[in-house]
Amino acid sequence: MLAFSGCYYGGGEKERRDLGAIRKRWKTLHTSNPEKGRRQGRCPLTPEEVGLLLRALGYGSDVHIYAASGEIYGGEETLAPLKALFPNYHTKESLSRKDELTPFLAHSSRMAAIDFIVCDGSDAFVTNNNGNMAKILAGR
Questions:
Q1: How far, in Å, CA of 54 to CA of 26, rounded?
Q2: Among 54, 125, 111, which Cα is nearest to 83's?
Q3: Residue 106 and residue 103: Cα distance in Å, rounded?
Q4: Which of 22, 25, 51, 116 has the most CB atoms at less than 10 Å from its CB?
């Protein structure tokens, strides 16, 4: 999502190169001004910003967080501040055995369906972007 948005997390030249390589996959992706987009609130929040938002909304460190996503850019280093605020951090991979996920791995829509089911059954849902799943959950 970060690559598709045209935004950056502020990770310097390496991040720009990495995300630039990913963005080349989309021939119709428009070029944007990432700094302007972030100032206007059009960029996905960093994991740390998500954690700070949840804290500001009154959620304590005992709350369980489920990240409905694929790979987070920056991996564990990027996730560390969120996990420090909310140690009960979960993903599809952490909640299931490898053999349970294997039939779904080659199908992104099926992986997204798992995320939808978990999010739909949650007590609260906070989106990090204005994607289709967030819209479907809000409508539901």
A1: 32
A2: 54
A3: 7
A4: 51
